[in-house]
Amino acid sequence: MSDVTPRYARVLHDGAPAYVLVPPAGPAQLLTAAPWADGRPTGVQLAHDAQMLCPVLPSKIIGIGRNYRKHAAELKNEVPEEPLMFFKPPSSLLDPGGTVQLPPESERVDYEGELVVVIGKRCRRASAAQAREAIFGYSIGCDITARDLQQKDKQWTRAKGFDTFCPLGPLVVPLKDPHGLSLQLTVNGQLRQDGSTSDMIFDVPALVAYASQSMTLEPGDVIYTGTPEGVGPLKHGDDVRVRIENLGELAFHVAGPA
Ligand code: ZN
Asked: Does 99 map to a domain?
């Protein structure tokens, strides 16, 4: 499917951020605006070595906790009866290829490879069918989490909200069905997570519909849909890659604490 589907990204072009269309073949083209804001191709082609940025600038980043049974079990948590939502601040976003900075406040910072939903249309109190219509596409994210602070603080704002704790990208891809995609995460080339998005407890339309009951979802908002089992700690110098079928690969480095 990745061979025929148009994909979208954001890059630095002549020193300014720009949305681009990445066609199935040929060079990427600049867009007039974000694709979910009716951005049209300008015909301007992009240099091959353009720096990739987060493909979205969300007004909010919603995370879903414990949405895979085996991950809930590995941290000795119950499976929630309804989706367990939290926020990550937009200031935690990290461009593809960037470096996660381990904070001195934590002794245990974990990776969590995740499928990310990108909203395309404003929606509020949506049904599952309306939620499907409101989705623009999908990307790859890593929900970096200071596990010790998550347990200590009870609520998760600090543990999941440090600067650089939200790697995202590099592409946004419209897919008809985001379930049944394989997801792998490697640290220094070693496989640590090997799951499938078909193992989600609450599926993607259910998550979007649920979130929209309490807050208006805006174009460009993103939802991190939870992580499969195999989470584990990061250390200075690690090279992390998250691959999701049809969505490509998100890479980042790890450094610190400074
Ligand atoms: Zn997560």
From this structure: yes
77 plus 183 within the same structural domain: yes
Which CATH number belongs to the domain containing residue 44 in this structure?
A: 2.30.30
pLDDT tens figures, 56-76: 999 999 999 999 988 888 888
Record the pTM: 0.96
At 89-98, the pLDDT tens digits run 999 999 999 9
**Mean pLDDT across the chain, nearest whole number?**
95
Ligand 1 center to 222 CA (angstroms): 13
Ligand 1 centre distance from Cα of residue 43 (Å): 38
Give the range of the structural domain holding residue 244, as residue numbers without chain letter.
61-255
Query: Considering the domain boundaries, does residue 1 fall inside one?
Result: no
Question: How many Å lie between the centroid of ligand 1 and the Cα of residue 71?
Answer: 10
- pLDDT at residue 4, rounded to an integer: 60
217/134 Cα distance (integer angstroms): 9
Cα 228 to averaged position of ligand 1 atoms, centre (Å): 9
Residues 163 and 35 both lie in one domain: no
- Number of domains the chain contains: 2
65 CA to centre of ligand 1 in angstroms: 6
pLDDT tens string 198-243 = 999 999 999 999 999 999 999 999 999 999 999 999 999 999 999 9
Place of tokens 């440090």: 162
Q: Ligand 1 mean position to 27 CA, how many Å?
A: 34
Distance between Cα 62 and ligand 1 center (Å): 10
